Structures are given as C-alpha cells and as structure tokens.
Amino acid sequence: MTEQPKLGKLVAVHAIAPAYLQRTVIVAVLSFLFFMVTMVMFSMWKNFLYFFLSSAFLIVYLLTMLGWLMLRKNVLKIYENGFTYRKFAARWDEIETVETSSSNGRLTCEIRKKKGEKITLSDAIHDVESAIRTIERKRSLES
Asked: In what order do the strands lie in the sheet with 88-91?
C-alpha cells in the first residue's frame, strides 16, 4: 500500500470509467484505420482529396490520443485520512460540503474545502457512487 503524507494508507483507487475508455479506444482505432485507408488511396490515385482526408483523420487520431492521456490523470485515490483527485488533496476534516446532483442521467458531486477550493467528480470516474458514499461516510465520522 502506498503512503501519502498526512493522508495515511491508500484504501481505494477509482480510475476512468470503462465506458469512457472504450469510447476513446473505438474512436482512436477507427480514425487510425481511416487514416491508413485514405493514405493508401492517395498513394494509388495521387488525388489530393485523399491526402486532406487522411490528414483530417490523423488529426482526429492525435487529438483522441491526447484526450486519452489527459483522462488517465483523472484518478480518485481515497486514503484513511483523506483523498486526492488530480492536484486536489483534502483531509476529511478539511471538507466543508459534499453536494451530489443528477441531471440527464449524469451524476456529479461537488466537494468544497473550508478554504474555498472545490472539485467536481463526475461519472467519468469508475464506481463514482461508491466513492461518493465513502467520502460522505468518512467526512461525517470526522465531524
């Protein structure tokens, strides 16, 4: 188990939800395949329309991969005495409010520290409902 300064031992890790990861992989694979097909067509027929199409698919592919790398940072780590999410870290006694809302079938949770810092957890995190329950339970125990 990993030791985080002042937060204690690592209890749980909630990474990106599989549905979001699956969508990213599908878009990346399809855009790369279309890029390759249009490059082959360009090399066969020397029509610049295929070159522009392949360039567009390459851009979609690169942006998708960049987005995937950014999503990998969305890891919620829950420790004995607090949690971290991206660059946000809070001990249970530092949390002022935990507000959960659901709109259009999407769950979001806004967590605000007593100092005014806030983060929003969304359903892009795997098993976010369980994570929110754990945060609320641990926060209420510290109050």
From this structure: 3-4, 8-14, 76-79, 82-85, 88-91
